[in-house]
Amino acid sequence: MNKKITRRQLAGVAAGSAVVSLAIAQVPVTSQDFDRAARESHRVNSAALAKFEIPMSLEPAFQFKA
Amino acid sequence: MTDDIFFAGIADLNARLRRREFSTVELVRAFAERLAKLGPRYNALALPLSEVALKRAKQVDDELKRERFRGPLQGIPFGAKDLLAFAGHPTTWGAKPYAGQVFDETATVLQKLDKTGSVLIGKLSMVELAGGGGYRTAAASLFGPGLNPWDPSCWSGGSSSGSGSAVSAGLVPFALGSETSGSIITPSAFCGITGLRPTYGLVSRHGAMALSWTMDKIGPMCHSAEDCGLVLQVIAGSDSKDPGSAEKSFYYTPQYSPQLSDLKVGFAPSDIGWADAAARPAFQSALQVMRETGVQFVEVGLPDLPYGVLADVIIGAEEASVFETLIVNGKVNDLADPSQAAALRANLEIPATEYLKAMRIRSLVKQKFRELFADVDVLIAPARYGAAPKITEPLDGPDPIPSPFPASPGMRRLIQAGNLAGIPALSVPCGFAGNLPVALQLAGPAFTENTLIALGREFQNRTDWHKRRPTLVS
User: Fold this and answer.
1) Which residues of A touch B342 (CB under 8 A)?
2) Cβ contact B359–A60 (<8 Å)
3) Predicted-complex ipTM score
4) Residues facing B203 on adjacent strands
5) Using CA atoms, how far apart are residues B346 and B359, in angstroms rounded to an integer?
6) Contact A10 B358 (CB under 8 A)
7) What would the pLDDT profile of B20-54 be if each residue is shown by its tens digit?
8) What is the pTM of this model?
9) HEC per residue, chain B
10) Where exactly are the structural domains of chain A?
């Protein structure tokens, strides 16, 4: 059985949601599971940002003011 | 006093105070008792402040007797989200690790309201840390899940949950909320009230909990668009104690409202298709009412940018820095939502290069919005695409897949996009899906709050959704 669980599924378990499948509900939810899900979410965000090409001239949306 | 008082507009209440139909003490006592009695039923009350409020109300009455008029908010009771510091009293940020926190200085916005004679009668509940880390359940709060006055088995929305419930149930005439990415618009829409997210920097955040320095805003949550204008006029303005201050004031000027026939309003036809089936008739009718105001409708879409990812990374990196001590010392584990604690821990690992890339793409968001607003004056979309969920539902469950599948994304990401761009938005109730309210969102270029309020006010002149009252739990 694949033990990998997404953050979204974990949230369903935490909320006691009826929409979460029995198989998911049987996966023990630990602090490490939540940590793993959070890191997975970061990986997805990183991949999305990496795909985005921007020119060198595009500066961040804040400026230091002396 | 009749129940009508509890749902009256600010100008009406102020006029009746001036006519001495009742005193400030009587008005404050009536609201404070109601808030203390009914607030806990909706998990809306964080801290009652009846004693200090009545003391302040007596001072306001003395001023009114001497005809020292300080504007339409004089003598009006209000509530504030519990992320705003009120000196000498607990400010919990809705989170167990901060349950005993007391500040020495009062937030700028509360000082400004006090100067006009408005009376703080209670702190209102909120999602813990204003949702920092991303909450997954309505119960992610020191005060329990925010319960919706229209149906207490449903959520009031977050993170300004108590502000939404309290205004909706007539426990305060208005409240202050805050928004980083949806925390005013969402509870306003779910609770059937009118909420205004101001332009970034227009309202001082000094004395407010920081979540994301580049995205946090404080704004009014009221019964009507007009009331939002009256409150914004008082709380807006330059503040040297807020590094993000735009150093601009706001004057509510309905007398100089734009000709509505001159306004170009951008909308996305596919938005109706994205809405929950039960909410579609309300949105369709509301758009028709908007058309009848004389504005020109123009079909638009949001620029195709990864708004969700940008908001996640920017807020994630900034909140990790804000709460670094909490995370490192392990007290983050005392939060009610374990997934929220995990996300905050993980956010410490967001690389600087990723944060900066997100902030660079955010510059593009600003640029694209400037281009969009060259063609339209206002964007209009559902505030939320459905009504409030049950409190037991996971908040990050999969989005329902509409049928037929809409041809374009429409403006479903307007809340995130608008917050990234720092632009203002107004949520106005526009009907019901079953027994729960739904709302339209009006968004415009930076510092065009008067235009949004003018259009919202005209919509509210033509409808009575904002006057509907929930049947309260007895």
Assistant:
1) 31, 34-35, 37-38
2) yes
3) 0.86
4) B236
5) 19
6) no
7) 999 999 999 999 999 999 999 999 999 999 999 99
8) 0.94
9) CCHHHHHCCHHHHHHHHHCCCCCHHHHHHHHHHHHHHHHHHHCCEEEECHHHHHHHHHHHHHHHHCCCCCCCCCCCEEEEECCECCCCCECCCCCHHHCCCECCCCCHHHHHHHHCCCEEEEEECCCHHHHCCCCCCCCCCCCCCCEECCEEEEECCCCCHHHHHHHHCCCCCCEEEEECCCCCHHHHHHHCCEEEECCCCCECCCCECCCCCCCCEEEEEECCHHHHHHHHHHHECCCCCCCCCCCCCCCCCHHHCCCHHHCEEEECCHHHHHCCHHHHHHHHHHHHHHHHCCCEEEECCCCCCCHHHHHHHHHHHHHHHHCHHHHHCCHHHHCCCHHHHHHHHHHCCCCHHHHHHHHHHHHHHHHHHHHHHHHCCEEEEECCCCCCCECCCCCCCCCCCCCCCCCCCCCCCHHHHHHHHCCCEEEEEEEEECCEEEEEEEECCCCCHHHHHHHHHHHHHHCCHHHCCCCCCC
10) 7-44
Query: Chain B closest CA to A16's CA: distance in Å?
Result: 7
* Catalytic positions of B, written as ranges: 81, 159, 183
In chain B, residues with a C-beta closer than 8 Å to the C-beta of A31 are 333, 338, 341-342
pLDDT tens digits along B273-298: 999 999 999 999 999 999 999 999 99
Structural domain for B410, as ranges: 1-474
What one-character DSSP code corresponds to residue A19? T
List CB contacts (< 8 A) between A59 and chain B: 360, 363
Looking up residue B435, the CATH number of its domain turns out to be: 3.90.1300.10
pLDDT at B474 over 80: no
Residues of chain B contacting residue A12, judged by C-beta atoms under 8 Å apart = 394, 397
Residue of A nearest to B343 (CA): A38
Q: Which of B333, B346, B363 comes nearest A39 by C-beta?
A: B346
Nearest to A15 among B343, B364, B392 (CB): B392
Cβ of A12 within 8 Å of Cβ of B397? The answer is yes
